[in-house]
Amino acid sequence: MDSKTIKVGSRKSQLAMIQTEAVIAKLKELDPAATFEILTMETIGDQIQNVALSQIGESNLFTKELEVALADGRIDMIVHSLKDLPSTLPPEMAITAVCEREDPHDAMVLHPKHAGNPSATLESLPPGSVIGTSSVRRVAQLKRKYPHLEFQDIRGNLNTRLRKLDEADTYSAIILAVAGLKRMGWGDRISQILTPDISLYAVSQGALAVETKTDNQQLIKFISQLHHPETLLRCVTERALLRALSGGCSAPVGTHSVLENNQLSLTGAVLSLDGSQYLTETQTVTLSTPIVLPKESMDQSTSYQMYSSIIGPNISQDALKAAEDLGISVAKNLHKNGATEILAKAKEENDSKAEKK
């Protein structure tokens, strides 16, 4: 990289800053001479705390303000939790690094009153226990699995939600992402990790990503060295699924992906808001090898193809295309089996709730 200071956009929360600083540390390992400046800002999702995310009516709740700053040149790159990024990005912007994924699963965190029972699970909680989450995906799956539980919205950053759990008696437990808890150093608060048979996770959950402009080729070549091939391919197929389903905050869409021995498997699920309707589809594709390209081929590139809004100049384009096609194929079969109607109904119900606020 040249001597220009790279300006990095980030949300203001403690978790966002930890994630941003972690990515910068990795970039400094690649080029110790590189310098960075962090610019923080609040997004719509940070500002509106009294409405469930699914009822705000925006697809870019945690990214819009940062992307405006990227577009007008105030910043050069943004560090995101990839699950916060819509499946379609603004023109001339792309995801140019996907870092190695932390555990993508959801976790149950118990109220201190249950701390004396280390073996407590969602299944073992008493009937009528209130579980806090604002995720329609989590609620739909857990209502289906545990009809004896009640669910209430809980908003705020990770610190705020844990404080709401601990300082009142409203919730018996809350559901959070394992990745965020671990990055904050709070892994010891995890009482139960929700495996895919309990709750399929959100698209790209647990992965960090960098967003840049597509015309900044020097920065793209530098940042894309952070790509973790397995995570990248899994997130390409998951994001392709979400885009083809036209899903977002108002859509209970869950996923699970695995890449082993060049076999990429994807499970996608679509649910009604109450969990009573449930569609699932699993497919597998064999990826061509080699998946990772030699550095010389990346250095010679002058233009890049995007897959699920991700540029991977150091990854086989055939493998990226196969991953994207897999996500589209899974979504196509889900639509064929009734996902279109389920998602339309979920959107209608969320819109109705939003109008009553």
Features:
357 residues; alpha/beta; 5-stranded mixed β-sheet; 11 helices; 15 strands
Describe the structure.
The protein is α/β, with parallel strands linked by helices and 357 residues long. 34% of the residues lie in helices and 22% in strands. It contains eleven helices and 15 strands. The chain has helices at 14-30, 44-47, 64-71, 136-145, 158-167, 178-183, 217-223, 229-245, 295-300, 317-336, 339-356, and strands at residues 6-11, 36-41, 77-81, 93-98, 106-110, 130-132, 150-152, 173-177, 190-194, 208-213, 253-260, 263-271, 278-286, 306-307, 310-311. The longest helix is centred in the C-terminal third of the chain and has 20 residues, at 317-336.
Average pLDDT score: 90
Class from secondary-structure proportions = alpha/beta
Helical content (DSSP H or I, runs of 4+): 25-40%
Into which percentage range does the β-strand content fall? 15-25%
Order of helices and strands: EHEHHEEEEHEHEHEEHHEEEHEEHH
Rg calculated over all Cα atoms: 20 Å
Identify the strand order in the major beta sheet.
2-1-3-10-4
User: How far do the termini sit from each other?
Assistant: 49 Å
> How many helical stretches?
11
General shape: globular
What's the main sheet like? 5 strands, mixed
Residue ranges: pLDDT <50 for 5 or more in a row? 47-51, 54-58
* Oligomeric state of this protein: single chain
